[in-house]
Amino acid sequence: MTSIASRHPNLPPPEGERRPGARRAKAQRLTRAALGRHPIGMLFSAPYALFVAVLFAYPLGLAVWISFHRYFFAAPGVSVPRPYVGLANYEAVLDDPAVRQAFLNIAIFLVINVPLTVMLSLVLATALNAVIPFRAFFRTSFFVPYVTASVATVGVWLFMFSSGGIASNALGPLAPHPSWLINEQWAMPTIAIYVTWKGLGIFILLYLAALQSVPKELYEAAKVDGASWWHRFLSVTVPGVRQVTTLVTLLAIITGANLFTEPYLLTGGGGPNGKSTSPVLQIYETGIEQNHPDFASALGVILVVGVLLIVGIQQLVQRRQT
Amino acid sequence: MKSRIVVAAAAPLILGLLAACGGGGGVSASSAADAHGPISIWYSNNTQEVAWGEQMVASWNKLHPSEKVTGQQIPAAASSEEVIGAAITAGSEPCLIYNTAPAAVPTFEQQGGLVSLSSFPGGASYIEARSGAGASVYKSPDGQYYQLPWKSNPVMIFYNKKVFAKAGISTTNPPLSTYSEFLATSKKLVSSGAAKYAIYPDPSSDFFQAWYDFYPMYAAETGGTELVQNGKATFNSTAGDAVAAFWQQMYAEGLAGKGSYTNDPFADGTAAMAIVGPWAIASYQGKVDWGVVPVPTTAGSHGDQVPTFSDAKNIAMYASCKNRGTAWDFLKYSTSTTEDGKLLAMTGQMPMRQGIQQLYASYFKANPSYTEFAAEAAHTIEVPNVPNSIEDWQVFRDAWSKSVIFGQQSPDSALAGAATQINKLVASGATP
Amino acid sequence: MTQTVPPAPEVTAAAAAASDDVPEIEPRVPRSWWRLIVLLFGSLIFLFPFYYMIVGSFQKTANTALSGVIPSPGNLTLHNYSQINAALSLGKALLNSAIFTGGVLLGTLVFGVLAGYALAQLRFRGRGLVFAFMLLLLMVPFQLLIIPLYVLIVRDYGLGDSYLGMIAPFAINSTAVFIFRQFFLQVPSELFDAARIDGASELRVLTRVALPLVRPALLTAMLLTFIGPWNEFLWPLLITKQQSMQPLTVALANYISTVSGVATNPYGAIMAGAVVLAVPVVVLVIVFQRHFVSVNIGSAVKG
């Protein structure tokens, strides 16, 4: 009969067997207390932790530090005064009308993009969730814009939405004048539609996965109760994929708040009268183009805090619902 | 979990505090000033300038095999100031950049990225001997030269002779010298259907766009006043308001386009005129039969004595340069009479050298259309060498966009607001 | 043990049979026609810009009229491709993009899986901290960090104009780590405990038990990770000064904003560059699309 100790090495050895392994067991207990039950986890996560510390935490800390000082970038070896200025940069950011316009633009963007993304991806995923001819083709076609580099798709959108481009030609007299991307009212909505189109693929895939875990019995039961397909959709599908809806909403919000590439490429910067600028574009312009990283860092911190707030509120609301 | 988030948030702050007291090493100025050896330079993306640069570098390398120069085009980006600024920060910029905008020099200086050319023996006198009295506007507030005035592109009005003929306007002496004449001609061009727009300066909000619509005409109208003088903005004046009102009318009546345009509207015939300098001529070859006149003023003045904006690009020496002795010698070599002549011949841009019309008479005889530019080159103004100069221009451009282009505010009040802001910026950046 | 025939197993068996991929379809034909129409319409909208991209890249002069949607034989040329290839070397730029993306994928797959597994199944000091940082990283915009990162990587480490410098800030994709963690959380820990009780070291548990399991999540994570560097142009723009090092995104973006004006058909040349940038990926997606079975993604996302 094998000893209990050898079969369960974690148990403290019985009275008579305490002496031989006693010291080792105690050492094990101490390391366990100090380093956790699986200290090798530290080894496994070390590369990632190092990566995060050096390439994220340190620049983030530096950026926050910069936001409280008067700071501009100087050549190596040149020492310039970098006085502490408290909240001066934050005040400058909040006073700046261009920044306020940027946040307003993002609000417009989110109002258009997020509901549209959620609805369209759910509808298309629902439509895809059946045996239909060419299913693989459809699935692929929705995914293609997502995997294509933004610069490429921007190029063709610039072509389509230029003044005299086919978007305007297709609408004829209804087309906005001036044309889309140089129109103050239409610049941001056009960008919102572009981003929705581009990103829908991954969200459709996410919803597809979730739809397949909605139990068929629920649909059966609803059908038996005589519910129409619309009611079945509302009462079975939508609640069934609630977790993914939350995820999709969250991802869309974070992506929208950090919008940069699209305003930069589609409207060449701030757009007509600054109507399609975004906070991150402002960070880039003030931090890199104008060499005012103090202003840019303050703006960045405000943006991050804003996003965290929104995400936090969303989580609270969701937690209250379940 | 909460405490972990707090720690997670605090840690970067601590790391950042530690980091902020860091700093790499630079190049020690005293030893570098006499050092000789290989250097690298950047020139612009302009095809003709690249050709000139390559032949110049090749000829130097033949004469000085131990002090080889490596030349390359400036990395492409939205603006060269951005690229150079980032390179300065990283310490990766070359010794000389043949594409330094005067407006960016105050910023580069503030960064500690420039080497004073006056610090070389005979530096200031070399610059002044070549460019004459006009060189003094390129001095920095501390009286030293951090840039060498290299070439200018006096901004003038180009007009499309074919389009003008189609609209029934004289192509040899078009009525474009007063504001009222210019407006009337523009209306005629558009209403006759000869062109979609009379003129189409780029309406984007980059800080430098004002140099191609407002500034040349402001120079003409005021007889040569810079945007900022003696620390104060000057454009909140009758002259400034007049220029703004002129352009506002052009935009309001659809004579100038408000949307951004990828191609060159003058080259493809969308606009009948362009307000630009001789560097653009290369892109009009074979596409437009062009003529050129000075920019208009309210009263109208004739001849090529009308002041305009220089649109100069200069050469500067940068702080990461190790072999500054070679760099200075090369700088003088590339701005010699011979090389200036080659620059003129290969690019059509005006070297900022005294008396180019006499020195290179044969060129001007062969290319009479460039004589106008040579004459104008003697009457150009520059962007003011003041602190925060790029930001000043951005403030101006934003006010201009809002009021003149998009008509959401009256130009007078917009310009007044911009002037106040610019005064503050200049004052805040001035060293006490 | 009495033999009973509980109704539950029958229902579950039926449900199991029906559960592979396909819910019951209404016997009435109109429903699937409705789906087809919606999907067809959707596909058309999604794919049209790509079709137009190809058409536009072959046009001699840009034809923005509605009729330009159909390529007209008289207006076809390969000149746009040669023009953009003259302005920026398409092959080298594409190679740079591939190296950049490949490096990030490698870093994420190797170190991300390790980290995800550790965060999910291992208890060690500092675990919560790493997790909290990961969440924070997901929410902070890259542009906030870009200048300090630039100074760090180019000045302090001297990695300007190098592939390593390009890859560094993206080396391990935190979304992928999050996905791996979520995935491993779902795996019952009894599997790992059993291996541990059998005397396996943690390393062996990882290689023998965890790694073989993670394959479904790999594809999702790879997809999400791939998009970042493939799309990215701001960071390589700052890092690379030599044109020979620039990925195609940077080269094309610069072309669009600066040099395109001098081309004979600027839009055509831009379209040509866009086609070169888009086609390899689209081809890859089409070839591997049968692997994008939704079940993989679903299991990775739950929880």
Beta-strand share of residues of chain B: 5-15%
Placed side by side, the strands forming the largest sheet of chain B appear as 2-1-3-12-4-13
Unreliable parts of chain C: 1-22, 24-29, 294-303
Distance between the termini of chain C: 38 Å
H/E element sequence of chain C:
HHHHHHHHHHHHHHH
Helical content band of chain B: 40-55%
| Gap between N and C termini of chain B | 50 Å
CATH top level class name of the largest domain in chain B = Alpha Beta
CATH architecture of the largest domain in chain B: 3-Layer(aba) Sandwich
Global structural class of chain B:
alpha/beta
Give the number of DSSP strands of chain B: 14
Q: So what's the oligomer here?
A: heterotrimer
Question: How helical, in percent, are the residues of chain C?
Answer: 55-70%
Structural features, described:
The complex is a heterotrimer of chains A (322), B (432) and C (303). By secondary structure, chain A is mostly helical. Helix content of chain A is 71%, strand content 0%. The longest helix of chain A is centred in the middle third of the chain and has 32 residues, at 97-128. Residues 1-6 of chain A have low confidence and may be disordered. By secondary structure, chain B is an alpha/beta fold. Helices cover 44% and strands 12% of the residues of chain B. Chain B has 18 helices and 14 strands. Chain C has 15 helices and no strands. The chains are: A mainly alpha (322), B alpha/beta (432), C mainly alpha (303). At the A-C interface, helix 3, helix 5, helix 6, helix 7 and helix 8 of A face helix 1, helix 2, helix 4, helix 5 and helix 6 of C.
Q: Concise description?
A:
The complex is a heterotrimer of chains A (322), B (432) and C (303). Chain B has 432 residues and is α/β, with parallel strands linked by helices.
Helix/strand layout:
The complex is a heterotrimer of chains A (322), B (432) and C (303).
Chain A: H1 4-7, H2 18-35, H3 40-67, H4 88-95, H5 97-128, H6 135-147, H7 150-160, H8 166-171, H9 187-211, H10 216-224, H11 229-240, H12 242-257, H13 261-266, H14 279-289, H15 293-321
Chain B: H1 2-20, H2 29-34, E1 39-43, H3 47-63, E2 69-73, H4 80-90, E3 96-100, H5 105-110, H6 123-131, E4 148-152, E5 156-160, H7 161-166, H8 179-191, E6 197-199, H9 214-222, E7 228-229, E8 232-233, H10 238-252, E9 271-276, H11 281-284, E10 290-293, E11 308-309, E12 313-317, H12 324-334, H13 337-347, E13 350-351, H14 356-359, H15 361-366, H16 371-377, E14 380-381, H17 389-405, H18 411-429
Parallel strand pairs in B: 1-2, 1-3, 6-9, 11-14
Antiparallel strand pairs in B: 3-12, 4-12, 4-13, 5-9, 5-10, 7-8
Helix pairs in contact in B: 3-13, 9-10, 10-17, 17-18
Chain C: H1 7-18, H2 30-57, H3 79-87, H4 90-121, H5 127-139, H6 142-156, H7 163-167, H8 174-186, H9 189-197, H10 202-213, H11 215-231, H12 234-239, H13 248-257, H14 266-288, H15 294-301
Helix pairs in contact in C: 2-14, 3-14, 4-8, 4-11, 5-8, 8-11, 9-10, 11-15, 13-14
